[in-house]
Amino acid sequence: MKQFPEGFTWGTATASYQIEGGWNAEGKGPSIWDAFTQTPGKITEGGTGEVTCDHYHLMEADVKLMADMGLKAYRFSLSWSRIMPTGRGGVNPAGIAFYSRLLDELAKHDITPWVTLYHWDLPLALQLELDGWLNPVMADHFRDYARVCFENFGDRVQHWITFNEPWVIAIMGHNNGIMAPGRQSVTEPYLVAHQLLRSHGQAVDLYRREFQSAQGGQIGITNNCDWREPKTDSPADQAAAQRALEFFLGWFADPIYLGDYPAVMRERLGDRLPEFSHEDRRLLLGSSDFFGLNHYSTLYAEEKSAAEMDQQSPYGNGGISEDQDVQLSMDPSWQVTSMQWSVVPWGCAKLLQWIDQRYGHPPIVITENGCALEDELIDGEVHDPARAKFITGYVSACHDAIQQGVDLRGYFVWTLMDNFEWACGFTKRFGLHYTDYETRKRYPKDSARVFAEIATRNGVG
Ligand code: GBH
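Above: inputs. Below: predicted complex with GBH.
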């Protein structure tokens, strides 16, 4: 039996647009995801987040699910346009009241909240009026929104996350356009990433100057990264894998831990990569109290020029591949999930090591890990043995990394319940609870039991 360090955090995670529903309830303004899902052809089978798990109306029951599993930590995100309907100016009292009730409910069940300020659902007004994250003024608006959150919720929140996965916002929102706001450009991703980093810096600076000493919490950012394994041991492939990781995670983590974008990005992108002002750099350096990591998958990386690259390769997810000269691929022996992401637990251990070494042994928290697989509902229970195996495999890899000296502090499984999976709509099943969207009922899964057992064995609950 593997034992984790005392105080290790075990939790589940969700995001506002994926579970809340209540898309226009009680004064909520529209977000870019409300607009995107209503655009024909963007979402598989035309799904939207209008109702999804109806968490906005079933919140108490959902918190009870967590309590029944013995979970002690819950990561969720705030919907900016529920709190500020047009993103700036007026506050919606019903939005504040909702999250306030959620926090009280969690406290009642002794569940520690981890609160993400932004998980992709930008108030639509800010996109229409300001071009969203392309506009440098967004850092001011994000800071003002963060202030509203710290003021109203900070007395009950000890763990803040500014952004979830800026890489997805930049690449999937502004390069391949699969996600809202659906833009397709090779210059915008680098501009957007820059404004996201600046906005993060502003919010952290505000928290530290005006709230941290009184409220005593921690604040950080969550980045996503899949592992890149050199396809062969040739120096060229090793360099390609390293370059791919720097373009993926280094893009966002280097400015925070090392003070600037990776040199390899500067060399290859030239003017397309913005420069930080002296002030931005000062605010960014050291601006994360923990290293938030979402990790799902692994791919091989090999050196290939843009001209030689297989343009049909489905793995466009490594960033803008022409900028990297890296071809991604999969080993035929690897298992894949329903979303075609590979299941490679050792990739998780290797990535944790890479972060540990590059960023000087930071405290790391895995804020998401999980898988989409088909489940079977029999007699009111969901059978998902493959997911239970996935969770056991990745948690073991985390344990290996800790044995090797990595300072891993927590693990959040994605997700608490099946939900709206962005561009994939409702077709994929991820989490701990199967959701029947017709009856809005949730059913327990095998994997939920396995996860709860691991947590309980480690002294939680
Ligand atoms: C997370 O992002 C999101 O934070 C969450 O909202 C979402 O529900 C969850 O994932 C599940 O999708 O095709 O092999 O190249 C995950 C970010 C980026 C991870 C793309 C996997 C592609 C793997 N993902 N990456 S591959």
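The chain has one domain: 9-457.
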